[in-house]
Amino acid sequence: MKLKLLFMTLLMVIGTKVAVGRNYPVEYDIKTEEDHARVRSFAYESYEQCCADVQEQAKNEMLPRDQEEALLASVPQGGVLFVELLGNEWRMANGPNWTYIITDESGKELFRSKGNSYQEPPPAYKVQKNVVHTKFGTFVSRQEGQIPPERDAFGRPVYIMRDQKSIPMKLPDTFKVYIVDSINKNRCSYLLTRESNK
What we know:
The protein is α+β, with helices and mostly antiparallel strands. The protein has one domain (about 20-120, about 155-195). It has four helices and eleven strands. The strands form three sheets. Strands 1-11-10-4-5 form a five-stranded antiparallel beta sheet, with no helix packed on it. A four-stranded antiparallel beta sheet has the order 2-3-9-8. Strands 6-7 form a two-stranded antiparallel ribbon.
């Protein structure tokens, strides 16, 4: 009985290592080719990395195997894009103003989608008080103005929208991602190349 239990435990450990190994995270080298739109940050998580994240989540939450498999089945085949977009107004930063385009090396379009629409964050207000002393008394004026909730790298008030886009199809080892700002008619583009396993 003890030998059978030991053998089953050994099989489970080996099975887990094989399962994790099949979704070994794949890294991509990201090269910025154009930087004309107001994209604060760009990141890509490959299908394999997404699977590894799901397996780690399932392990931490002690999910049963069927729930882990359901989560793995929902992982997008092409991975996920993560971006931070900037705008002087919410509509400029919000996803519907932006278009994501993925092409292969030859320029053939593989994927196109608008960004996701998010609810505008609650407004932040800036209050200014002016105190004026005159011979007739002291007068206090108070002005309240709405400002964007965050600031860019230069300290200017700006809206920052964090978006992510799941890619439903498998992508080649090398591809390009274009992020197009339709209001300002500018874009950023990135060349992504799968790094070889060492």
